[in-house]
Write a structure and sequence with these properties.
CATH superfamily: NCX, central ion-binding region
Shape: globular
CATH topology: A middle domain of Talin 1
Largest sheet: 2 strands, antiparallel
Distance between the termini: 18 Å
Number of domains: 1
Length: 324
Amino acid sequence: MTGAWLVFSASAIAILLAGQLLVRSADRIARVTGLSQGWIGFLLVAVVTSLPELVATMTGGGIDAPGIAVGNALGSNAFNLGILGLMGMFSGTAFFAHLSFTHILSASGSVLLTALVLAAIAVGGGPALGRISLISLLILLFYLLAVYAQFRVEKGVPPEPGLTLGWAPALAVLSAGVIVVAGVALTHAAKTISEGTGIAQSVVGAILVALATSLPEVAASIGALRLRAFDLLAGDIFGSNLFNVVTIFFADLVFGRPILGALGADAWPLVLVAAWGIGLTALAVAALEVKAGKGWRGPEPASLLLFLGYLGGLGVLAAQGFYQ
């Protein structure tokens, strides 16, 4: 058990460091290419920082731990929204007032995809097409539509003159490689911890694995906050949440059958986790619609509520225990 905790901790540290390297590379790519911060955050940063969730979810399916796989995907979304609230509190301004309305599209998309997950759980995974649930396939198709729609609404900015890409693309690829390797090791360690402690896989996935695999989002968010690149920060969070739900499609591939129909006793805890994420996202969308003035001083109420909502849901989930 001690070895599992050491592997888990080392993997988490590697993921955190790689995430810090990634956000610096992404910011340079945005300034050189003229792509908007929101789009770079939504696509490049979000996909790379979500690689741990993809690896962990697929690994969970491959080692017959569906509760960890799905719990990680859904729990990471709630954790990401908690990060968004915390960063908004530390921004020292009316955080949501500085964000583009285009984030509403990706935030709403994550609600739709999570609702499809809930529907699949309710019907025992739903009809299958070979190894894949048709609902999982629908989730993938909606994600691709969301990427296209987000691209259409984002507006670019003039490239920064005299600046070159340099090592930024190579460092982004290096970051992705570190994140993938650490993600696999982390998931195996999490399963060992779950079996050794008797804690249900859904709780380990939704809290422990979700927290560790979301460390790149933490690192990217801190870096973006330092640069006051608020749209890059929000684009990463909402884009990651969309991508996290899509990882369930890939979990089907390695699991060999619809993973949402094989949750057993973990199904109801994961319904709670999904509802938690939907509620936090709805709060974020409301904050994007109803913005406080940009002259606001002190912790923004919407950011504070978002962070407290995450802590409250975490407390409820932990209090339930869901021991096997």
